[in-house]
Amino acid sequence: MVYVDEHPEYWNEYNNLQHVKHALLKRYLGGWFPILSTWHGRVVYVDCHAGRGEHARGQRGSPLIALEVLLGHRLLQRIIAHTEVVLTFIERDCANAAQLEGHLAEYALPSNVKAEVVCQDFEQVITGLVDDLVERKLQMAPAFIFVDPYGFKLSMGVLARLNSFERCELFVNFMWRYIDMAIHHDAQEENMDALFGSPEWRRTREIQDPAQRCDSAIRLFQQALGARYITWVKMLGENQAVKYVLIHATNHRRGRELMKEAIWAVCCTGDFVARVADNPDQEFLIRPEPDLAPLEDWLSSKYRGHEIRYREIEDELISTIFLPKHLHSVLRRARKDGRITLSAYEGRLAFDKNPMISYNPPPSRDRNRGRER
Ligand SMILES: C[S@@+](CC[C@H](N)C(=O)[O-])C[C@H]1O[C@@H](n2cnc3c(N)ncnc32)[C@H](O)[C@@H]1O
Predict the structure, then answer these.
(1) CB under 8 Å to 322, separation ≥6 — which residues?
(2) Is 53 near ligand 1, meaning CB less than 6 Å away?
(3) Does the N-terminal or the C-terminal CB of the chain have fewer CB atoms within 10 Å?
(4) CB 62 less than 6 A from any atom of ligand 1
(5) Cβ distance 52 to 152 under 8 Å?
């Protein structure tokens, strides 16, 4: 059956959620391409719901953003010196696909960069690709796969197969508002079984609190996917309820770190939500200070009474949303307040010297808001 874009109006607007989604993608790929350029071979970007490439007022869509991040990268020559970068844009609506092809024709591509549009259903394309690799007993090249549907008709079978390839990362638009409605609809059970890959999601029906229900669904999604690390941003609609959740899944520590950095750069208030009502053109004159209290609490509850090397703490930081620079600032303050002591401490607190830290803060009574993710 011929598919026709069911939400053509999507291309007429460009709200803050679309802006944040693209800003995260841009920021992440800006770090991802050069890291993978050390990989001599092929690197793949797949946009499973590529769209038209451009919104009505000229804002770039995800395929052109990915391509421009690569072509405009200050390290482009180094990236493509020994690596072929293949960008595959899958779009089921053939009129959208044709528009995208028209935009792509405006770019001059170096010989080591390939960009192609495939007008087909993404699950068919991905299934064919994975079947072929499995049959030929081949590994997948390092891949970033962006899954950005309008709704929730996704199959965990396909996503989990992708994740089973060690160097394959997923960036999934988890359409929570629709999923939350579907969870409570008997007629949607089959779709929910496919999305979550098991009947477990039924337990989320019992959870009354909407935020907890959403978090529980994200955890179930991670378990079924089998990803080592997931990192997410909640996108809020007009009523401040979660509209969708952008979930990044990777099996690599560096991927997790890179996505944390991207999120802090884009959602700099540190609450990891984006609001539709915010102005996408807003520049922060003064960037808001992040709330580091959850990090202080996490450190004191984990390390109180222990002696530990700085690098061991930094290793564990991966399970939180905080960055090394936040850890540094909290440790500096704790040293100043006398809540930690350091071995062989001479004047400046040099983290690169991997000091031994005795963390012994007073018990905190009212703040147990650890932000583990
Ligand atoms: C939310 S839009 C994509 C936006 C795009 N990723 C961006 O950020 O610019 C969803 C797109 O997926 C396309 N689409 C819907 N179902 C699809 C399917 N099964 N396979 C591939 N594309 C599909 C729609 O036609 C639409 O263009």
Answers:
(1) 260, 292, 295, 371
(2) no
(3) N
(4) yes
(5) no
Residue 363 pLDDT grade (very low, low, confident, very high; cuts 50, 70, 90): low
Among 141, 133, 149, 174, residue whose Cα is nearest residue 91: 149
* Phi, psi values for residue 247, rounded to 5°: -115, 125
Q: From the CA of 221, how far away is ligand 1's center (Å)?
A: 21
Q: Which atom of ligand 1 is nearest to the CA of 91?
A: 22
Is the minimum distance from the CB of 91 to ligand 1 under 6 angstroms? yes
Reported pTM: 0.92
Measured from the CB, is residue 92 less than 6 Å from ligand 1? yes
User: What string of DSSP letters covers 17-32?
Assistant: HHHHHHHHHHHHHHHH
Residue whose CA is at the smallest distance from ligand 1 atom 2: 51
Question: Whose structure tokens read 């609190």?
Answer: 209
State the architecture of 8-275 in CATH terms.
Answer: 3-Layer(aba) Sandwich (3.40)
Q: How many residues does the chain have?
A: 373
In this structure, which CATH number among 1.10.150, 1.25.40, 3.50.80, 1.10.10 belongs to the domain 293-359? 1.10.10
Please state the domain extents for the chain: 8-275, 293-359
Residue 286: what residue type? I
pLDDT at 303 over 70: yes
Residue corresponding to tokens 């996490």: 298
Residue 160 has pLDDT above 60, yes or no: yes
Rounded CA-CA distance 320/302 in Å is 12
Atom of ligand 1 nearest to the CA of 4: 25
- Would the CB of 101 count as within 6 Å of ligand 1? no
For residue 125, give the ligand 1 atom closest to its CA. Answer: 20
